[in-house]
């Protein structure tokens, strides 16, 4: 939104009531991705422990 504002020389308005739901959605998607990476990393560590025990 800020890039669009700057690119148009300030001639574009930014309606926060429109941006907030998108911002919330992006933040939620980011959190889901972080949790998934953490779970996958934990699963890999668990697999490594199983292989080392052989």
Can you characterise this structure?
The protein has 54 residues and is an all-alpha fold. The chain has a domain of 33 residues. It has two helices and no strands. The longest helix is centred in the middle third of the chain and has 37 residues. The model has no long low-confidence stretch (mean pLDDT 85).
Question: Any chance you could write out the topology, listing elements then pairs?
Answer:
Layout (H helix, E strand, L loop, with lengths): L1 H6 L8 H37 L2
Describe the structure in brief.
The chain is an all-alpha fold. The protein has helices at 2-7, 16-52. It holds the Pfam family DUF2605.
Which stretches are low in confidence, meaning pLDDT under 50 for 5 or more residues running? none
Structural class: mainly alpha
Gyration radius, in Å: 21 Å
Number of helices: 2
């Amino acid at each position: 939104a800020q890039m669009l504002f700057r690119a148009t020389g300030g001639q574009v308005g930014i309606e926060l009531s429109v941006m907030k739901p998108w911002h919330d959605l992006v933040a939620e998607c980011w959190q889901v991705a972080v949790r998934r990476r953490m779970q996958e990393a934990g699963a890999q560590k668990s697999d490594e422990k199983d292989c080392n025990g052989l």
